[in-house]
């Protein structure tokens, strides 16, 4: 159909990222034997096989330090500047350092968003340590991205519950564009309610194959949620091809399909 497909949640993993023991459960579920390193060309091939034009490549930072650094992401983008766009990660425990790093990533490196993974920090998104970053995201005109729902890795899921934690953020920062990844299961209904209630709250489908979409989520995508949902894969844990398999079974209208695959992401991340 000639759609432009944008994968809003992917990462090119480092050896340190893949070696973290809390990912052992994901490796078991996905039945993948990750090697210490994955060539960048293999990531591009995985995108090509699925027809993905652009990958929003995320850095990762947790209490243990950088698992995938912003500078490493920038180096990879420089090798394929037409295929990747950077998503920053910062040290939540060092607020001023985090603010300066976010500004550097956006102003100097051209990144288009900030991602913090609440389960990695053990802190829900309404914790006070996030709030200066939300204000800066608004000033920089970039989205804030996070994971919602249960935690596949071997850490607690509670920080990913949409209500009340993410709802509090949307109330306090109505101008903040929020992209909530992994659809929110087992609290998918909560996540749908937030995306319906708040103009600037969106959902991405990373980590979920079409066959695993709950019926309520399918119905939302097919109807009034058409412009609120974006495609994501969570590569390398799932390939974009696996996540797009079965898309035709949803029988989406042409405009809905285009929004889901790339147009909503283009608007939210200001890629036009």
Question: Any descriptors?
Answer:
272 residues, alpha/beta, TIM Barrel, three-stranded parallel β-sheet
Which helices and strands occur, and which strands form pairs?
Layout: E1 5-10, H1 15-19, H2 24-30, H3 40-50, E2 52-58, E3 60-62, E4 65-68, H4 70-79, E5 84-87, H5 95-107, E6 114-115, H6 118-121, H7 131-140, E7 144-147, H8 162-172, E8 178-181, H9 188-197, E9 201-204, H10 215-222, E10 229-230, H11 240-244, H12 254-268
Parallel strand pairs: 1-2, 2-5, 6-7, 7-8, 8-9, 9-10
Antiparallel strand pairs: 3-4
Helix pairs in contact: 5-7
What is shown here, in short?
With 272 residues, the chain is an alpha/beta fold.
The helix fraction, in percent, is: 40-55%
Quickly count the domains: 1
Q: Mean pLDDT across all residues, rounded?
A: 94
What is the terminal separation in angstroms?
Answer: 20 Å
Beta-strand content estimate: 5-15%
The ordered string of helix (H) and strand (E) elements is EHHHEEEHEHEHHEHEHEHEHH
Tally the beta strands.
Answer: 10
| Poorly predicted residue ranges | none
CATH architecture: Alpha-Beta Barrel
Tell me the Rg in angstroms: 17 Å
Anisotropy-based shape:
globular
Supply the CATH superfamily name. Answer: Metal-dependent hydrolases
Q: How can the largest sheet be summarized?
A: 5 strands, parallel
Class inferred from helices and paired strands: alpha/beta
CATH class: Alpha Beta
Neighbour order of strands in the largest sheet? 6-7-8-9-10
CATH fold naming: TIM Barrel
Figure out the total of helices: 12
Explain how this protein is built.
There is one protein chain. This protein is α/β, with parallel strands linked by helices. It contains twelve helices and ten strands. It has helices spanning 15-19, 24-30, 40-50, 70-79, 95-107, 118-121, 131-140, 162-172, 188-197, 215-222, 240-244, 254-268, and strands spanning 5-10, 52-58, 60-62, 65-68, 84-87, 114-115, 144-147, 178-181, 201-204, 229-230. The radius of gyration is 17 Å and the shape is globular. The protein has one domain (5-268): TIM Barrel (Alpha-Beta Barrel). 40% of the residues lie in helices and 15% in strands. Helix 8 (162-172) links the parallel strand 7 (144-147) and strand 8 (178-181). A five-stranded parallel β-sheet has the order 6-7-8-9-10. Strands 1-2-5 form a three-stranded parallel β-sheet.
